[in-house]
């Protein structure tokens, strides 16, 4: 089973807790990069280490959660080995993997309900990259 890095900020804390329980029950191994409470924090302090762990192969994929999903997505995408996608439905979560070989999914906790967040995470983790015609495009993403 895949090893998953998860983290974000205070706005994503409750969803992070729920996703850890949900995905652990599905058999995934999760590494929690924080935060550990709803106290205000700076998301880069948590998601840079998450991105590094995916980039260097310690974790297979990542889940980053903040209020809008934008801050965590911008931050993890600064890493050359990361292809992060901001998603708000399961179709986008699947396409991020199928067509873009995304290795981090970014969830906007203030804009999707918990059931949708769980469904998106599950879809993202269960979907494979299609390769083929998409591979040449993915190869052109990094600078």
Overview of the molecule:
- It is a single chain.
- With 143 residues, the chain is of the alpha/beta class.
- The protein has one domain (3-139): Ribose 5-phosphate Isomerase B, Chain: A (3-Layer(aba) Sandwich), CATH 3.40.1400.10.
- Helices cover 44% and strands 17% of the residues.
- The protein has helices spanning 13-25, 44-55, 70-76, 90-100, 114-126, 133-139; strands spanning 3-8, 29-32, 61-66, 84-86, 104-108.
- The protein has a five-stranded parallel sheet, with helices on both faces.
- Strand 4, helix 4 (90-100) and strand 5 (104-108) form a beta-alpha-beta unit.
- Helix 1 (13-25) crosses helix 5 and helix 4 packs parallel to helix 5 (114-126).
- 40% of the residues are buried.
**Distance between the amino and carboxyl termini:** 31 Å
Number of strands: 5
Radius of gyration: 14 Å
The pLDDT mean sits at 97
Order of helices and strands: EHEHEHEHEHH
Q: Say what the CATH topology is.
A: Ribose 5-phosphate Isomerase B, Chain: A
Domain count: the total is 1
Share of residues in helices: 40-55%
Shape: globular
Number of helices, counting only DSSP H or I runs of 4 residues or more: 6
Question: What does the main sheet amount to?
Answer: 5 strands, parallel
Strand fraction equals: 15-25%
CATH class: Alpha Beta
Helix/strand class: alpha/beta
Which terms summarize this structure?
Ribose 5-phosphate Isomerase B, Chain: A; alpha/beta; 143 residues; 5 strands; five-stranded parallel sheet
Strands, helices and their partners?
Blueprint: E1 3-8, H1 13-25, E2 29-32, H2 44-55, E3 61-66, H3 70-76, E4 84-86, H4 90-100, E5 104-108, H5 114-126, H6 133-139
Parallel strand pairs: 1-2, 1-3, 3-5, 4-5
């Amino acid at each position: 089973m895949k090893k998953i890095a998860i983290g974000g900020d205070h706005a994503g804390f409750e969803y992070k807790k729920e996703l850890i329980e949900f995905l652990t029950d599905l058999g995934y191994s999760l590494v929690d990069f924080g935060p550990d409470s709803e106290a205000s924090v700076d998301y880069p302090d948590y998601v840079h280490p998450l991105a590094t762990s995916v980039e260097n192969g310690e974790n297979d994929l990542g889940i980053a959660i903040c209020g809008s999903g934008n801050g965590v997505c911008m931050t993890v995408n600064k890493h050359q080995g990361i292809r992060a996608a901001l998603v708000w439905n399961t179709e986008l979560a699947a396409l991020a993997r199928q067509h873009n070989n995304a290795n981090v999914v970014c969830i906007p906790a203030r804009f999707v309900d918990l059931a949708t967040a769980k469904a998106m995470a599950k879809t993202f983790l269960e979907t494979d990259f299609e390769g083929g015609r998409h591979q040449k495009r993915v190869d052109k993403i990094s600078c």
